[in-house]
């Protein structure tokens, strides 16, 4: 998270071309056509993150947030589902990159966010409402 906070106005911005991203959180080694699809739905259920040696879902959640905001064509909104939303890393990253204001509902262990596409001109922050980590529920 420290790297993201330091690089949010550069490599880790919410609207970008992930194929050429130098952000450490960006997944940019998928098949090239993945980045050109105007995704309507993204489901994140991996990689594993429940034990210390597992990579966790921080990069997947960051990448989903960027894909939703950077998409061209298609409908304006992307539905992003996060499995195991109650885990600390998934909740923290979802709040930061998908935004608590975009949380539609949580059922059992699945969070449903609706994220709108936008232009880079709207700023460098992922969320319009800042997150105060000390006041999280």
From TrEMBL:
Its main location: Golgi. Keywords: Membrane, Transmembrane, Transmembrane helix. PANTHER family: OS11G0490100 PROTEIN. GO terms for cellular component: Golgi membrane. This is IRX15-LIKE-like. GO terms for biological process: xylan biosynthetic process. It is a single-pass membrane protein. It is found in: Golgi apparatus membrane. It comes from the Eukaryota.
């Amino acid at each position: 998270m420290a790297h993201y906070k330091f690089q949010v106005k550069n490599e880790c911005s919410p609207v970008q071309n992930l194929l050429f991203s130098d952000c450490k959180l960006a997944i940019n080694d998928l098949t090239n056509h993945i980045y050109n699809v105007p995704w309507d739905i993204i489901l994140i259920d991996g990689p594993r993150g429940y034990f210390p040696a597992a990579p966790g879902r921080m990069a997947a959640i960051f990448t989903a947030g960027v894909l939703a905001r950077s998409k061209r064509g298609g409908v304006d909104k992307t539905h992003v589902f996060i499995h195991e939303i109650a885990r600390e890393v998934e909740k923290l990253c979802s709040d930061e990159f998908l935004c608590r204001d975009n949380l539609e509902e949580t059922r059992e262990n699945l969070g449903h966010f609706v994220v709108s596409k936008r232009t880079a001109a709207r700023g460098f922050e992922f969320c319009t409402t800042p997150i105060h980590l000390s006041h999280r529920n």
